[in-house]
Amino acid sequence: MKPAYLSEGRRGPAQIWNSAPQLAQIPPIATASLVPAGARVVVIAPHPGDEVLACGGLLQLLSTLEHPLKLISITDGSASHPGSQVWPASRLSVVRPQESAEALRRLGMPLHSLKWIRGGFCDNALAAREAQLSPFIARYLQPGDVVFTTWRDDGNADHDAVGRASAQACSQVGAQLYELPIRAWHWPARESAAIPWHRARKVRLNSWAVARKLHAAHAYASQLMGDPEIGLPPILAQVLLERMREPYEIVFL
User: Fold this and answer.
1) Across-strand partners of 148?
2) Is-contact 222 96, C-beta < 8 A?
3) Closest CA to 72 of 165, 184, 182, 202
4) pLDDT tens-digit series, residues 133-145
5) Which of 57, 96, 91, 102 is nearest to 73 (CA)?
6) Strand pairing category for 200-204 and 248-252
7) In sequence order, what are the residues at sequence separation of 6 or more whose Cβ sits closer than 8 angstroms to the Cβ of residue 142?
8) How far apart are CA 32 and CA 164, in angstroms?
9) Average pLDDT over the chain, rounded to an integer
10) 79-108 b/e with 16+ CB inside 10 Å = b?
């Protein structure tokens, strides 16, 4: 996850996630329509925890349906607190994987059978490594896979790079790609025209799935704490947690 350094305009109530009228018009889609029976699901997260923010509810549904699951964490998230003595990269490189394992446990993921790949790329620098990202991702895909990753126009450089690289890898291998917005929901409402609403579908979640997703997000203790000594706010800003209470997740077809 990346710091939610929202501008003053994005910090108020007029953000896309809580004010765009188009949200109410998004048609729902059943999990079975997204993922055919027996298909393997691959979730590609630029940073540890992006899978919870983007599709923690969907992951629960897919796990219940017993789809084979693979999670690819492109980075270990160790650059989330630049300049911090409390959360230096050396500490985060150990803590973040532990937080991810706990978050997945809270989601009810089958850790004994979940295939989890850690890419080891440096976060905050994925755009410069995009040429290496695509073949790395393709190495772990196979024809017929259903892949979920961050939207290539999400507005975060790492998210965008992983979205583009995943699209190229899926095209090369013959896998189905779906994109997930995270940061885009916190754009000012006036920018809602940039959202591809025609591609959006709504995966409905019950209250239990939403509660488990929030519980999983709170496993990321390092991301809930900033560093006041250097003026660094929490990476998991309150507005991100508020959005996660919505009873649905959005997928771009």
Assistant:
1) 43, 178
2) yes
3) 165
4) 999 999 999 999 9
5) 96
6) antiparallel
7) 40, 173, 175
8) 25
9) 93
10) bbbeebeebebeebeebbbebbbebbebbe
Structural domains present in the chain:
8-20+39-252 (3.40.50.10320)
Closest CA to 42 of 136, 152, 158: 136
* Length of the chain (residues): 253
**What is the tens place of the pLDDT at every residue in 1-53?**
444 344 433 445 689 999 999 999 999 999 999 999 999 999 999 999 999 99
Tokens representing 43 are 């979730």
- Structural tokens at position 75: 């980075």
Contact 73, 98 (CB under 8 A): no
pLDDT, one tens digit per residue, over 216-229 is 999 999 999 989 99
181: which DSSP letter? Answer: -
What is the rounded CA–CA span in Å between residue 220 and residue 50? 11
- Residue 130: CB atoms within 10 A of its CB come to 14
Write a three-state SS string for 52-94. Answer: HHHHHHHHHHHHHCCCCEEEEEEECCCCCCCCCCCCCHHHHHH
**Residue 173, burial from CB neighbour count under 10 angstroms (0-12, 13-18, 19+):** middle
Q: Is 50 exceeded by the pLDDT of residue 168?
A: yes
Q: What is the pTM of this model?
A: 0.94
